[in-house]
Every structure is written in structure tokens, then in C-alpha cells.
Amino acid sequence: MHPPSRPPSTEPPGQGGGSLFAADALLPGGWARDVLLRWDAAGTLQSVQAGAQAGSAPRAPGPLIPGMPNLHSHAFQRAFAGLTEYRASGAADSFWSWRNLMYRFAARITPESLEAIATWLYVEMLEAGYTAVCEFHYVHHGQDGKPYADDATLAHALLRAARAAGIGITLLPVLYQTSGFGAQPPRADQARFIRSTDGMLSLLERLVPALQGPAARLGLAPHSLRAVPPDSLRAAISGLSALDAMAPIHIHIAEQTQEVADCQAWSGQRPVEWLLYHAPVDARWCLVHATHMTPAEYAAAAATGAVAGLCPSTEANLGDGLFDVPRWLRHGGRWGVGSDSHACVNAAEELMLLEYGQRLSTQQRNVLAGAGQPDVATAMTLQAVQGGAQATGRPVAGLAVGQQADWVALDAGHVALDGLPAARQLGAHVFASHRTSAVQGVWVGGRQRVQAGRHALHDAAARAFVQARAGMIRPGD
Q1: Which long-range contacts (CB under 8 A, 24 or more apart) does 240-243 make?
Q2: Where is 131: in which H helix or E strand?
Q3: What pLDDT is recorded for position 11?
Q4: Tens of pLDDT along 263-317?
Q5: Per-residue pLDDT at 384 exceeds 90
Q6: DSSP-based three-state secondary structure for 231
Q7: What does the buried/exposed string (b/e) look like for 342-351 if buried means 16 or more CB atoms within 10 Å of the residue's CB?
Q8: How far apart are CA 413 and CA 416, in angstroms?
Q9: Residue 132 pairs with which residues in a beta bridge?
């Protein structure tokens, strides 16, 4: 057993607030000129003034865009990225064959390796323009499937990683109980995930003190309808609401066609249909993937106020299919992006892939632009920040008073951006650069975490990650 771990502090170190002047900044209402930002010691924006004078405030190196919340992450899977890109047998590969390999890798995680992997991942996220992460955390127990002496050992490893990197975190411990619809017994290779409902609520209570302050939030992730029976789902949501009536709830839903067919065989309803009928889905919820819905499900799910959690690079990597974003938007639905299995860790690239998927599906261009915002990169950024912030349960909804001082400064001198107006610079960043190459600086809670495109922990975190991954590789991987 690993020795009990010390809960990390989530309070930011003392700071006196600050100010920054930007010639161009993307505010919630669109692009603005000569913007002066001021924030307090807690890292909360107190003033966002357009048409201002710089005065003595430092100047941003390029246009400012709001930091992107990453609404869906399985941190340990970053060390697994790239290891399944081969066909293992004559049969067609699928999400389900990938999952078997992923389970084999998950069995090797230790608290030390998880912390090293997550620290590097969160450094990568910051360098790629993410300033917050929702960590969908489902590896709970030791390699023998038994709880650690400190039942929150792996959760604390993730919180220490977020703290070290300086990224805001919404921790979502995952409730996982069964291997399939109809309360099928869990598989042997799922033993590290399994928790009783009472055990989960006990874990949440223990984690509350470690997730106080502006940099962190606690929520819950019922893994999926196939993994959480109805009675457990109701009890877990009720227990979470008693702890925090506004805590975020995330769930994998309708990701794969087999999941839809299995749910129909079990209940006579499709997954989203069943969830909306049996659970109190509202704006606290994030429906992760929700790839396979009928027109009626799109309308009904959007009406709840829930966020659609879209992970374009992972959904492409796993062959999930395409979410119908235009249909969702017609019903007033909100959405955000996540990097999920971390085949790609790049906020702008997720936006690019999302738009390109819609172009291939509709055979049109600039699909996610709108009448109110015809520039597609601007429209997508604002929508993804709003939806992502809602999914985090934290005030990270952009450059506005009362929100956390999280933003990204683009490099105005980058060859893809140089000489262009601000909106076109953002478009070039998303569609014409190497995506991360145009990120100059990143601030979280008013503290600069990335300078000249690089995090202070880049080299040390990368070395620790490589060492941790090497210790998990086996012959045949």
C-alpha cells in the first residue's frame, strides 16, 4: 500500500493583484480595442475597460483571448497516447478493442506515475491555451483493486499536479459499478474503478477541504448509464446535492452506436432519452460526447441547459462519429471542448477539428459562424469558453468583471499572424499556424504561467513524464 498522501492546498500563493493593457482583446461581446484589465489579490477581474490608456500597466505582447476550459480529461491516458495506432488482429478495431488495451495500461498506474503524467499534461495544456481542466477521475484503487490506506491517494496526486502546473481544476471522481446495462457484474480489469455509492459520497466529503478557493471545484461523474445502475445514480446525485447543490455533474452518454443499441435492449429507450426521463438534468450537467442522438433528443437535451462536452480529436481517434453542432445551436444548446484521451493536447486544434468535421458533414464552410459573429474562430472561441466555464462550475467565462483573470496572449509577430487585424490573427492561430506556436503567454488567476510559449516546469515535467511512461511500458505495447 502507498502511504497516505497529504491533501494539497488549492489556495494561490499571496499576490497583490495587477494590471495588463492589450491593444486588442476578445471580450464576451466581441473584439475591443485598448483594453485595460485589473485584477485583485485573489485573481478575480475587478475592471475590464475598453478604450483605455495604458498608463503604467504592462503591455500584452499580442491580442488577448480568454483562456479555454478543458471540460473532459482522463489524465493518465496521456501516457497511453500513440500506443494503440495499429491493428492487432484481423478483426476491425473499434472503441471497444481500444478500451481493452486502455484497461491494461490503467492497471499499471501508481500514485507517483499518475502525478508525473498529470503534471506534464497540465503543463502541456497551459502551453496550448487551456487554463482550466475538468478531470474525469476513475482510477481510484491500488493495482490489486483494493483501496489505498488513504482512499483519496490518487485524487490528491491529481490535485498536486494541478497545483504545481498552476491550472484551475474541477475534480470529478467517477462512480463506476457495473460492466453493462442491467447491472452486469464488473470485469476483473475494472476493479480499480469500482466504488459503492456510499463509498463515493464518503470520498466526496473527504475531498471538500482540499477543493476550496478560486482554483478548484469538486463535482461528480457517474461514468455512464452502463456503469451506474438507476438506483445508484439517483442516490449519488441526491448525496452530491446535499453537499453542494450547484456542484457540476458529468456523464459519458451515447458515445457509441453499440451503447445506444444495448441501452435500447435494456430499457426500450436510447441513452439520452432515458437520462432525460429519469434524472434531473439541468445546467449543472455536462453530457460528454452525446454523439448519437435523434432530432428529438437534441431538442430535449438542449432545453435542459446542459452543456455538450465535445472532444473532436478523441472522437475522431476512436471512430465515435460526429456531433451535429448546427442542430444543437438551433435549439440554443451550449457546448465546450475537451481533450479526453489526449491524443491531441491543443485547444485551438480541437476547435479546428470541430469545425472541419462539420464542414465534411454539411459540405459547407464556416459552419459554426453565425449572423451575430460571422468570424468562425471568434464565434467558436466565445461559445467554447462559455460552455466550458459552465461545465467547470467555476467563474472562468472570459474577460469580464467577476471572472477569474485567465487569458492567452497570442504572438502578434508570429509569421502566420503578423500584420493582420486581431480577429484575423485568431483565425490564423486556429486554422493557419501550428496552433501552439502562436501562443506567446498564458495567465491563470492573474499569474503568468507561460512566457514566450514555454512553462517554467516544461523540461523537468517532461523528463518525469518520460520516466513514468517508460516504467509502465511492457513488451508488446
Answers
A1: 240/201, 240/204, 243/201, 243/204, 243/205, 243/208
A2: strand 130-137
A3: 37
A4: 999 999 999 999 999 999 999 999 999 999 999 999 999 999 999 999 999 999 9
A5: yes
A6: helix
A7: bbbbbbbbbb
A8: 8
A9: 69, 168
Q: How many CB atoms lie within 10 A of CB 293?
A: 25
Tell me which DSSP letter residue 190 carries.
G
Q: Which amino acid is at 470?
A: A
Q: Which residues pair with 175 in a beta bridge?
A: 222
pLDDT at 366 over 50: yes
Contact 326, 294 (CB under 8 A): no
C-alpha cell at position 407: 487569458
Q: What is the dihedral of CA 55, 57, 61, 62, to 10 degrees?
A: -70
Cβ–Cβ < 8 Å for 387, 72: no
- H/E stretch holding 348: helix 347-362
Q: Could you read off the pLDDT of 181-208 as tens digits, one per residue?
A: 999 999 999 999 999 999 999 999 999 9
* Side-chain half-sphere CA neighbours of 47 within 13 A: 13
Contact 262, 180 (CB under 8 A): yes
Distance from chain centroid for Cα 216: 13
Strand, coil or helix: 442: strand
Residue 14, pLDDT score: 40
Catalytic residue among 150, 320, 340, 411: 340
CA distances from 231 to 238, 247, 350 (A): 11, 20, 36
Cell of 341: 484521451
Identity (one letter) of the amino acid at 8? P
Cross-strand bridge partners of residue 442: 408, 450
320 as an active site residue: the answer is no
Separation CA 410–CA 438 (nearest Å): 6
Residue 282: active-site member: no
Confidence band (pLDDT; 50, 70, 90) for 15? Answer: low
Distance of CA 30 to the CA centre of its chain: 24
Q: Which residue has the cell 507517483?
A: 112
Q: Which residue among the candidates 72, 252, 289, 292 is catalytic per the annotation?
A: 289
Q: How far is CA 365 from CA 350, 362, 434, in A?
A: 17, 8, 21
Query: How far is C-alpha 80 from the geometric centre of its chain's CA atoms?
Result: 18
Distance CA 15, CA 289 (A): 39
Q: What is the DSSP letter of 371?
A: S
Residues near 344 by beta carbon (within 8 Å), at least 6 away in sequence: 313, 314, 350, 353
Q: Which helix (H) or strand (E) holds 459?
A: helix 458-470
